[in-house]
Specification:
The protein is an all-alpha fold and about 100 residues long. The chain is built from two helices and no strands. The protein has a domain at about 50-85. The protein has helices at about 35-40, 40-85.
Length: about 100
């Protein structure tokens, strides 16, 4: 081992300056405007797909509502039949 006095700090040259922008701004490469982005085919395709999914979701909501109403009617009829036959009622709409 070396005595403490023999250690030296390595000399390293840094070109980094935190006050200088490392990647200069290129005025020819500006960020596109939002209006330009909205005109891109990818955006328009995404917007069409979103509209399609929203319509599909609405249609499925209506179908679910319709099926729930039908199930309620079937359960009501079943209760009537069970009451006529004096069969104890059990809930058939629970899974």
């Amino acid at each position: 081992m070396y005595p403490y006095g023999n250690y030296s700090i390595p000399q390293v040259q840094y070109d980094y300056n935190p006050y200088v922008q490392q990647y200069p701004y290129d005025p020819d490469r500006q960020m596109p405007q939002l209006s330009q982005l909205l005109q891109l085919p990818q955006w328009q395709q995404l917007e069409r797909r979103l509209n399609q999914l929203e319509r599909q979701n609405d249609r499925q909501d209506r179908e679910i509502d319709q099926l729930q109403r039908r199930l309620q009617r079937v359960n009501q009829r079943l209760r009537v039949v069970e009451n006529r036959l004096h069969v104890p009622f059990s809930s058939h709409d629970e899974f």
